[in-house]
Amino acid sequence: MIDDIRNLTSIILANLKNDIIANFVTRVPLLLVLDPESFEPPFTNALDEYLTGKLVSNSSGYNVSTNLANANGFTVFSFHIVTGYLITFLQIVFGALDIIYSLLRLCLSAIFFGIFLSLFVFCFIWLGVTINRRWKLIALIIRNLEFENVC
User: N or C: which end of the chain has fewer CB within 10 A?
Assistant: First the structure.
């Protein structure tokens, strides 16, 4: 059980790391705002990957639908029903975590884009003011210099 949780956690962390590297290092964060359909949910993808690997490894020698019976022979519950409910519950929880993660990711990309845009506007205004002042200085220098001895 603990190994299963550890495996699922390692898959989730690997998906989160790959998503952050793909969307904040190799791609421009603005693309998260412009193209949100490129989002691959790390939590539900990890659950699907884990369950796919688990079903493949359980296909030989282990029956998931083993029934427990009481003394009268009636079925108390079956593991496949409980497992189905547990998987559905995990899908709902991981779906909510994917929504929260996508909102955080969009907020981070908007913050990065806002910082980039404000720096761009500041540099553009600074460049305009600097060029305006320097042209006045260059014109003043040219006006005050006499070019009589220039060949």
Answer: C
